[in-house]
Amino acid sequence: MVELLRTNDIVLISVVETLLREAGVYFFVADENMSVLEGSLGFLPRRICVADDEIGRARRLLREAGFGHELSDA
Prior knowledge:
It contains three helices and three strands; from the N terminus they run βαβαβα. The chain has 74 residues and is an alpha+beta fold.
């Protein structure tokens, strides 16, 4: 799995999840349950990860949807 983006914006996470799901790209949201440790303050970013062989397609999809500036450099 490769990190596609990292954010604490839950609306952005929801939009990206929808885009990836509709395109059939398998993804995993890491650190989703960290709110238990942080006290639900939302300051710990969540990471959306995709399979190594899907990273190019996922990046292209987000760029085309106008979210290219949100992509992780990794």
